[in-house]
Amino acid sequence: MSSKAPVSDLTGWNRTSFTGSAITHECYEKGTGPGVVLLPEVPGITPEVLALAEHLVGEGFTVVVPSLYGTPGRTETTGYALPVMARLCVAAEFRAFATNGRRPVADYVRALARDLAGRTPGAGVGVIGMCFSGGFALAAAVDDTVLASVLSQPSLPLPLGAARRADPGLSADELDRVAERTTTDGLCVLGLRFSGDRLAPPERFAGLRSRLGEAFEVIELDASPGNAAGFPSAAHSVLTREVRDTPGHPTLAARTRVTEFLRDRLAPARRPEAP
User: Fold this and answer.
1) Which residues of 94-112 are buried (b: 16+ CB within 10 A; e: fewer)?
2) Domain coordinates of the chain in residue numbers?
3) What is the pLDDT of residues 206-258, one digit of tens each?
4) Contact 110, 150 (CB under 8 A)
5) How is residue 273 annotated by DSSP?
6) N or C, which end of the chain has less CB nearby within 10 Å?
């Protein structure tokens, strides 16, 4: 039983640079099997994000983590996160406050997904977005190479006002294409959030359920006062900071469902054999 989230480091990760849609970011890759693009939450590729990446590698996936912001491998602190967030709020690549926004970073993620799909087994790849990057995973599903999209606590546009709380984090045209793919291509989307998370408001998931119907699976973890798992009311990071390697823990079950979802949607990922 652990009282802290799993962490890892950059040991063994292959560092490359990838350019797509005139945007360049450093990327970290590891593993074999079907491809998964893991988009980091703010402030970047933290030890907790790397622990999730290592988990996916251990489950038989090739994982690419683009460094969209922050310093790869650096531990999160308030003094580190706040300046990163301040820069992101004014960066044209992310359009943090825009409603009905087509974000340049989504084009980059689609290009990265196509590149990964072209050199990994199976018909396509999965994309996981978390927090600031949550909506990018949905926007990536405009591209036919993306067969599975996971949105964990998507927080863009920053939910100031009713319109932004309900905004899905991508443009209407992009959402139309994603909705079309749920009926023509069998695309499925998985969303995760804590019940009291104001950064990923319930209106956002309600709007997506209205558009995507049964193709949008939602996992909502109880963070109400006195909840059985002891989550704080401000619990936010379903797959990283709040994960506990404790059998039966709700976040561990959520992470397991994400793995199953990716395995079901992509080509079967063979578990590594025991040594």
Assistant:
1) bbbbbeebebebbbbbbbb
2) 14-265
3) 999 999 999 999 999 999 999 999 999 999 999 999 999 999 999 999 999 99
4) no
5) P
6) C
Give the residue among 5, 8, 29, 4 at the shortest CA–CA distance from 73: 8
Return d(Cα 264, Cα 262) in angstroms, integer: 5
Query: CA angle, corner 40, sides to 191 and 262, nearest 5?
Result: 45
Q: CB–CB of 99/163 below 8 Å?
A: yes
Residue 217, classed as helix, strand or coil, is: strand
Whether 41 contacts 240, CB under 8 Å: yes
178-185, long-range: CB < 8 A, 24+ apart: 178/138, 178/139, 178/141, 178/142, 178/149, 178/212, 179/211, 179/212, 181/141, 181/142, 181/144, 182/212, 182/213, 182/215, 182/216, 183/215, 185/144, 185/147
CATH topology of domain 14-265: Rossmann fold (3.40.50)
DSSP string, 7-41: ---STTPEEEEEEETTEEEEEEEE-SSSEEEEPPP
Backbone angle region of 213, left / alpha / beta, with phi > 0 → left and psi within -120 to 50 → alpha: left
Per-residue tokens: 44: 């970047």
- Taking the CA atoms of 166, 53, 44 and 116 in sequence, report the sign of the dihedral they define: negative
Please give the Cα distance from 189 to 214 (Å, whole number): 9
pLDDT at 224: 96
